[in-house]
Design goal:
234 residues, alpha+beta, NADH Oxidase, 8 helices
């Protein structure tokens, strides 16, 4: 681990240049670097400090090909959805088509990445109604819906740490979720227990392209001051 924390300028440079990398070289990634990425992941916040995350690291070439085939199958569904969508207003038609082309490349080459990482979350049980103070039992169903709504908050911060750690180490990655469309097949292939859910499939490797800058809509278009009707002045 590093002896000193990075400066704020290093941190913001990492954030601003952590571009999604869909084209990765097949060169192997040392296990020591993946361990550093995983160690960064588990420094993320965890609801109730449950730390009920798990990370499946896939390096075997044959298994990566099988995962890639499943990802391709799920991506056929995604392709149909994207074809029905219109270009987002902040993108030009050319930018939209370039993004779709880059996505299609990944759909065909997921299994070629030297490392595939699957962030998972062990399901947390909700106490039975009779275990809750009678004065609060009426909230049991609402609490179940609440837990369903916030579950990603206990894994996606770890995913962001993975993205930033990879960037800091010169590795490329991105978050993808197409496999969730056929998650049962995916979990069966990897032997993931029924009570564990997957939340992303992240290819990791040395990028063919360059990092950043990441292009985003201006803050003033998406941030609000006190109320929705008032734009943030920054």
């Amino acid at each position: 681990m590093p002896d000193a924390l990075p400066s704020s300028s290093d941190l913001f440079e990492t954030i601003y240049t952590a571009r999604a990398q869909r084209r990765l070289r097949p060169d192997p990634v040392p296990d020591a670097l993946i361990t550093r990425v995983l160690d960064a992941a588990i420094r993320a916040p965890s609801a109730g400090n449950a730390q009920n995350w798990h990370f499946v690291v896939i390096r075997d070439a044959g298994l990566r090909r099988e995962v890639g085939a499943l990802y391709r199958k799920a991506s056929d569904i995604a392709a149909a959805i994207y074809q029905a969508r219109s270009c987002p207003s902040h993108l030009t038609e050319n930018e939209w088509q370039r993004m779709l082309t880059a996505g299609a490349h990944l759909w065909d080459h997921m299994g070629d990445a030297p490392v595939l990482l699957v962030p998972c979350l062990h399901q947390r049980d909700l106490p039975a109604p009779d275990a809750i103070d009678p004065a609060w039992r009426q909230h049991h169903e609402a609490e179940r819906l609440y837990l369903d709504r916030i579950r990603g908050a206990s894994i996606y911060p770890a995913v962001q740490n993975i993205i930033l750690a990879c960037r800091a180490l010169g590795l490329g990655t991105l978050i993808t979720t197409n496999h969730l469309r056929i998650e049962a097949e995916f979990k069966q292939l990897l032997g993931i227990p029924a009570e564990v859910d997957t939340f992303a499939l992240m290819p990791i490797g040395w990028p063919e392209g360059h990092f950043g800058p990441v292009k985003r809509r201006p803050v003033a278009e998406v941030a609000h001051a006190d109320r929705w009707s008032s734009a943030w002045p920054g």
